[in-house]
Every structure is written in C-alpha cells, then in structure tokens.
Amino acid sequence: MGAPKAVGAHSPRPSPFPRPSPEATGSLPPPLRISAIKQGPTHVSEPAVRVPASVDWPNSLRVGFHLSIAGGPARLFRRFDERGCTAFQMFLGSPRSWEVAVWSDDWLAAFREERCRRGSPPIVAHTRYLLNLASRHDEVRARSIATLRAEYRSAARLGADFLVLHMGSHPERGQGLKLMQEGLIRALAEVAGPHPLLLLENTAGEANDLGTAPADLATVRAGLPFPTGVCWDTCHAFQAGFDFTTAAGRLGLERALVRAFGTDEVAVVHLNDAMFPRGRGRDRHAALDQGHIGAEALAAFLRSPLLRGATVIFETPQPDGPDDPSADLANRDRLHRAFLATRSDVPSLQVTSCGRWRRCLRR
Fold it and tell me: Model's pTM, two decimal places?
C-alpha cells in the first residue's frame, strides 16, 4: 500500500458544549507540561458484554463513536464493543488542559492487544480544544504549536490512522489563514507523514472561526509540505450555511467539496445533528432527529461517492455519561433506519473516486 500523495506544493468535538478559548477569557495558557497519564489498570478483565448486532453499512463506511479512554484500554474497548463500532475516536488527554499525557509501555501494549483482537479498526485521534495556531497572541500560538507537535507524536505512538485538528480563529481571515499555515509548518514539518494523517476540520463560524468554507481549508493545505486530509463535521457545515435537508442542497455541498479538495480528500465525517437552525453559526451538537437536519438527510449525504469508505464518527451527546451506551445505540439505530428508508439513487455527483487517502488505513 503506497503512501498518500501530499496536497498543495506536493500535489494534492465530541461535545454539545462550546469549547473554551484562552483568548475569549483574556487569559494565556501556562507553559506546556508533559506528564505521565493517570492510566488506571491496563490488563483488567472486563465482564462479558452483549455485543449489538453488526450493521452492514452502505458505501463501505466504517462507523463508530467518540469514546472515553478513562479506565484504561480494557474499559475503552468494552465501550467499543457495547456500541457495535467498526471505528472510533478518542482524545489523547484532557481536551481542556494543556498538559500532555504520556502512556506507559504497558498501557500501549494493552491498547494494541485489545485493538488487534477486534481486527485493528480505524482510530481517529482528536486534538484538544485549546489549540489555536492562528491566534493573534504569540504565547497562545507558541503553546499551540508545541502541544500539536507533542500530540502528533502521541498519536503516532498509539498507531492512530488520523489526527483531527480544528481550524483556528482570528478576527482577520486572510491573516488568520496565513498564521494557521505557518503554525502547522512550524509544528509538524519535521514530524508529520501519512501515519497518522493530519485532518483539518471545518468549523461552525463561532468567535472568528476560520474554516467555515471549504476554500479556507484548501488554502491552508495548499502550502503544507506534508500530506493532509479533511474531516467534515455535519453540524458545523449546517451552521455555516450548507443545506443537508434537500437534494439540491446536498448536491451543492458535494460540488463545493470537489472544487476545494477533489474527490478523495474527506477521510472522516463527524456525524452530528444541529441544535440550532441552519446558518446560525452555533456549534451545538444534537442527537439524530432531535435537531434541524435529521437522520434521513444525513444518511443521504453519507451515500455520496465522495465518502465511499470514509470513517464516520458520531459526536452526539451522551447525557448519561460515557459508560452508558443507550444514547449512542439510539443514534446508531436511527442512522440505520434512515439508510433503509432512503433510496440509493438520490441525485449525486458522478465521480470516479480512487480512495487516495484510504490506503493510509492500517489493515
């Protein structure tokens, strides 16, 4: 399997709550700290769980949830089993702290063993919310660059397939995109490669967010000396004005994605309904069919040939905590029923997709 082709110069959240911003509060982060993670047991036997019936997802999709790593690898993969996942997403440490966790060799060995027992499903690692490589404050940018470099190395050590990073924020779009690109080069030029593949995520448009338009992501990616891809969040896109609820709206979104990225660059979809109506710029995730998009509209979008073989991650609310799978299973079932209710011949772009980035997945 060959490495993916780089873009640009080399050719081509899991939370319904707002992410905290050090700039919004006027406070700057403390110096970067690297410490051993409070890991919990690594080889604890977990009680047998009833594994939900597997779903044969259309369009060769891999589907899973954002899972908590609290309690160690055995607990993490128990959560994986309870939800019938074929992929999953995780944070590499606390999303609201600058402290970088370091796993012990025993923790990593247990993680790899548990993953292997389940057929080595795709892993999406997610960077912490505090990062802002486009910040107008030098100290915030410096901390963000150092933390991203450390998180990339952690994701590589873990064996993650993808590392997702939110686009930053800046009051002036052009300058913000320039700072974002420069920050990525400073952070990753000497360490980044196809494993894990860095994915830039679109945003909803809150607080001077960059990345509401596909063109923003394309502009940043075009000047990077290492391979990247795209993570497309449905709630964020809906809040930025894209319409999933009509065939014409979905076709327009597909065309916008192809213009910006070509046909093979969206590697991961964050699947979320939206708490607020379209175009409000409010990043508040909702359970499927409890927001303003709806499961059938999202299922129709996932049938796009642009997303064939993509990894789909639910970031929907878990009101009873990460160890209760009921809300996640309800969302999974709504999506499954929506696929059964929607036709596979809905209007869509006619493209030939070779799955360029899919060769990154470790089989």
Answer: 0.85
